[in-house]
Amino acid sequence: MIQCKRVYDAPAREDGYRILVDRLWPRGIKKADLVYDEWCKALTPSGELRKAYHGDTLDFAAFSQAYRQELAQHKAEGERIAARAQTQTVTLLYAAKQTEQNHAQVLAAWLRQLAVSRS
Questions:
Q1: What Pfam families does its record include (predicted)?
Q2: Which of 2, 70, 73, 106 is found 20 to 30 A from 50 (Cα to Cα)?
Q3: DSSP state of 19
């Protein structure tokens, strides 16, 4: 199972393996205070793409499409995480205020597709 959660929400046992999926460290959180198992920068949007989306140059649909193209270059890393999600819960941690339209949701959907193709 793959799920998403804001880094500012309290950790729970049900989170399983927690992966920070932001390129930048979340504001207001000390590194020693965040409960996470891995910081996976390889699967985060590029700096240019992130800035274009947050600068309102791209809408969410265009951002999602461009981000999926970037993710395709890191398929091996994605397959590693998708494989883990078949044996335990994987929680993708993100700092964005928007909970429905953010890169973690796009990443989670991409990872779920990889997991299905592995079956």
A1: DUF488-N3i
A2: 2
A3: E
